[in-house]
Design goal:
Layout (H helix, E strand, L loop, with lengths): L2 E2 L5 H4 L3 E2 L5 E7 L10 H8 L8 H5 L13 H4 L11 E15 L16 E18 L4 E15 L2 E11 L4 H11 L20 H8 L4 E3 L2 E3 L8 E25 L3 E25 L9 E30 L2 E8 L3 E19 L6 E9 L3 E3 L5 E4 L3 E10 L3 E11 L4 E4 L5 H12 L2 E14 L2 E10 L11 E2 L4 E14 L4 E14 L1 E2 L3 E6 L2 E7 L5 E15 L1
């Protein structure tokens, strides 16, 4: 399996050391515990990935297959030409309860013996859609009517928890080994002040600094070493990756109806990102007989990092829908890339417990250490700037009398065109560009929907969404330091009720599954002239997320 990892600068991860045999030694570091201080190319992909599965209860129940169908509050976010299909005004509000459960390979996670300290389930109450459509003008001429819409729509949801555990690991595959190798490879990047205290310095090394301050590693004139974990230790490893937030979009759309045959639309989208990731990693150190024989013996280590991204972006959407026959609609929409300005936040903390045997009294003392890093933020003129892929949507909808509607959409998104446009790291845009081009390809999404009226005031709905992987075939089995979403599927169903001539109430249930690439908390490989000679690594995990969404829309037509 391939590892895919990227550093702030590629050279930062590789120390080239000449040996007596004039061979090149290369150390490569990676994993979920590293590089949380910057937005990696995997993060930018994650912030850009969407299958447009959120909207009103009606649209979600029909798989959001509304590119051609139109006349729904989600139209401004999919195909603004659908705004022109309204024959009056519309005001609606859609709340949702979402439950995400992430199943991960590996053993059960009971953090420090406590069942419930972490959870692999995330439940949230959110509002995926609301808005208003207002008629601007109506006539009997060529331009039959003009409508204006303002709507809010959630286009991505990051609320999920992942738990990973691996027991019985050897002492040479610990977090201490990982940071010890990093510290020896890049010793010149560590600075001690006049009091002999290690400074935090570059945020890339904050984990290694915390490891030293908590007793995982030590240092003398000969370099960095480990003196609190015995060589015969058995290590139980625990990890949690919890994310929160969403990508939301405000759309301001205008729709133009030409004699009920051709509908044109344009919208301006203002998107916002609110993303938080808590990366936890912990180890318990066990011995036969419970004693390593060391004067200072580590009992456990906990390492927590918090990463936040905030940003806004803008895009444009253009759409056209033709109605050549009264029962047939064909629609096309183009979404420009969204151009983002992204602010970042990063902080870490580590706490350990050490058993100390006083050599004089031979009595045990318990030492608890806790160290918190500074806060690293980039904002304002230091904000990152990037652009998401452009998207092309096509759709067809067929009306069968007054009894049923069949609708189908196809969407193509070019993820290989993701680009980092500006950051505080010189040359990083070119490095990321190569990864976007090498790893990603165009993504295809199919959305299907059906609506049947059993009674004039009651409709049953169903839908399906399928989205394939945006990762090239050569990398489908890759191990990444962030879980990269690959394929997605959603099955949907719903009920629509007309309470009176103007008021409607819709219900929907959506069940979705998202698959991800394999991931690994940490690894370091040592190679000589291209041949791997040593590896320090944690276990590798596979994960997928199952999501249940329950949605209600209350709307008024006027």
């Amino acid at each position: 399996m391939k590892r895919i990892y990227i550093s702030a600068l590629v050279a930062l991860f590789a120390g080239l050391i000449s040996t007596s045999n004039v061979k090149a030694q290369v150390l490569d570091f990676g994993g979920t515990v590293l590089n949380n201080d910057i937005a990696t190319w995997m993060d930018l992909y994650d912030l850009s990935f969407t299958s447009h599965n959120y909207g009103t209860a009606r649209s979600m129940a029909m798989g959001n297959a509304f590119t051609a169908l139109g006349a729904d509050m989600v139209s401004a976010s999919l195909n603004p030409a659908g705004v022109a299909m309204y024959v009056g005004g519309d005001l609606s509000f859609t709340p949702m309860v979402t439950v995400a459960k992430s199943n991960t390979s590996g053993e059960a996670f009971y953090a420090n013996g406590s069942d419930g300290y972490f959870s692999n389930r995330a439940t949230r109450f959110v509002v995926p859609n609301f808005g208003v459509v207002v008629p601007v003008s109506m006539s009997t001429g060529l331009l039959t009517n003009i409508n204006f819409a303002v709507s809010y729509n959630r286009i991505a949801d990051f609320n999920q928890n992942r738990l990973m555990a691996s027991r019985g690991n050897s002492a040479d595959n610990s977090l201490a080994n990982y940071f010890c190798e990093m510290s020896n490879a890049d010793d010149h990047n560590f600075k001690f002040n006049s009091d002999g205290r290690l400074e935090f310095g570059d945020p890339f090394y904050w984990g290694a600094v915390l490891a030293y301050k908590n007793g995982l590693t030590n240092r003398d004139d000969n370099g960095w070493f480990i003196d609190r974990i015995g060589a015969d230790a058995i290590i139980d490893q625990y990890s949690s990756l919890e994310t929160r937030g969403a990508v939301d979009e405000w759309s301001f759309a205008g729709g133009f109806n030409l004699v009920d045959k051709v509908y044109l639309g344009i919208s301006i989208g203002i998107q916002s990102i609110d993303y938080t990731r808590d990366t936890y990693y912990g180890e318990d150190y066990l011995y036969d007989g419970g004693d390593s024989g060391l004067e200072h013996q580590l009992m456990y280590t906990n390492y927590m990092q918090t990463t936040r991204y905030y940003g806004t972006g803008h895009n444009f959407k253009f759409g056209v829908t033709a109605r050549p026959l009264h029962w047939l609609r064909v629609g096309v929409a183009y979404h420009t890339p969204t151009y983002y300005s992204l602010e970042t936040y990063y902080a870490g903390e580590m706490w350990t417990q050490t058993s100390y045997i006083n050599p004089t009294t031979e009595k045990e003392q318990i030492i608890d250490d806790y160290v918190q890093s500074p806060v690293f933020e980039e904002y304002g003129i230091n904000s990152w700037r990037y652009r998401t892929p452009s998207r092309l949507l096509t759709g067809v909808a067929v009306t069968l009398g007054n009894r049923a509607i069949l609708s189908a959409d196809y969407e193509r998104s070019w993820y290989q065109t993701l680009r980092l446009q500006e950051s505080t790291i010189v040359g990083l845009d070119d490095v990321y560009k190569s990864y976007f081009k090498d790893v990603f390809k165009a993504n295809n999404t199919l959305r299907l929907g059906v609506e049947c009226y059993l009674l004039p005031a009651m409709a049953l709905r169903a839908g399906y969404i399928w989205s394939n992987s945006a990762i090239k075939e050569d990398y489908t089995l890759a191990i990444t330091s962030r879980p990269i979403a690959t394929s997605q599927t959603f099955a949907t169903a719903g009920l629509g009720l007309h309470l009176n001539k103007t008021t409607y109430l819709d219900f929907a249930y959506q069940y979705g599954t998202t698959h991800y690439t394999s991931m690994q908390p940490f690894y370091v490989t040592e190679t000589y002239d291209g041949v791997t000679t040593a590896t320090i690594e944690s276990a590798i995990f596979d994960t997928k997320t199952k999501r249940h969404n329950i949605v209600v829309t209350l709307g008024v037509r006027f």
